[in-house]
Amino acid sequence: MVVEDGSPRSPEATLGRHVEDLWDIQEPQLSPTEKLNACFESIPVSAFPPAPSSQVIELNSDTSLADAVKLLSKHKILSAPVVDVKAPKDASWIDRYIGIVEFAGIVVWILHQSEKMEGSAGSAFDMYVSEETIGPAVAAAANGLSSPRFRSLHPESPTATSGNFFETLTSSDFYKNTKVQDISGSFRWAPFLALQKSNSFLTMLLLLSKYRMKSVPVVDLGETTIDNIITQSAVIHMLEECVGLHWFESWGTKKLSDLGLPLMKPSRIVKVDEDEPVLQAFKLMRQKGVGGVPVVESGGSKAVGNISIRDIQFLLIAPAIYKDYRSITAKNFLTAVRSYLEENQKDSPLLSGMVTCQRDNTLKEVILKLDSTKIHRIYVVDDAGNLEGVITLRDIISKLVHEPRGYFGDFFDGVLPLPANSRV
């Protein structure tokens, strides 16, 4: 957007004006999508505004899971690059970083371990937490938690859905002593995947959409540290700042239904009943590879709330808020979190609750709503409030550009994504 004197009001708007200039000189026979592809291919990723300093944090590889969760929660971010504490001080970035840890990865790892706790003493769980793999102190703590007296901690048991489970987990040596480096198998990409400053906007947008990256680090080959981190949310904010520009309006004023959104049929939506244990919501996220699920009223399809992968922070950093619940159902979880936020974090975007729209809304309306609430997904409902679909930030970005045939070439050589079932 621009201010009254006609100048852009922000770095993102300046960037949008640059896209506008490129848009105006494209060949007229090109389709709008082809024009946008050409524009974004012409802009280096170094032109993207830097992330706020408060959101650029690094985690040392020997940081405990407990401290990692606290730091991510404190800075209101979903992921952070992990620095190898054993790397020399003058190491290049490719040797300095071992990957990016995400809230999603921590959640997946915790659930994976808790599911294995039901096994016997000779189970694969005990083998996984041997001294050779994660060190003697952590192995001892983990094997202690897999003993018979902790069997009731399995996620499907009554104990697992009460506050006691999380108080036990968060006070355990297992949780406190496990290091970020110990869960490197949960990192989305291995080894570390980053963009160089000379790479294009198009490359960045495709990584954030088709290739499912939540954030993309940008590096300079001659430097030892990350220059910038670009998130899906930052891209949506950039789009919000471009409202009014011709290239944006030609794309953003289309109705969701005309763009093929939502992508998923109603019958395939992953959802949880309000009376189900909240751990079922997080288990579904892990099993289905999604970052959030809607909560629907008991026995119906009316959406009453949303639980995202980052919400597990409230089970880990504030388990005391559930001490009066015999069972933490999805409904009780939503109620307890709202009360906690109203008392402790009145400015939290999570207080917005569930954000909804309808199929005849425009993409611009959805972008404005998502950016203003700082929420990562919006649910499509009918006039009666029944759930018809979900639209994520990734879905929106995927409608902005497309991948030309053979575009990435050997870009991914040596960078192997983890199996699909380990992604969230």
TrEMBL record:
Question: Which SMART domains does the protein's record reference?
Answer: CBS
Alphabetical list of PROSITE patterns matching this protein: CBS (PS51371)
Keywords from UniProt, A to Z, are:
CBS domain, Repeat
In this protein, which residues make up the domain named CBS?
Answer: 52-117, 264-323, 350-408
Answer whether the UniProt record assigns the keyword Transport to this protein.
Answer: no
> Is Nucleotide-binding given among the entry's keywords?
no
Q: Supply the PANTHER family for this chain.
A: AMP-ACTIVATED PROTEIN KINASE, GAMMA REGULATORY SUBUNIT, CBS DOMAIN-CONTAINING PROTEIN
Protein name from the UniProt record: CBS domain-containing protein
What is the originating organism of this protein? Ilex paraguariensis
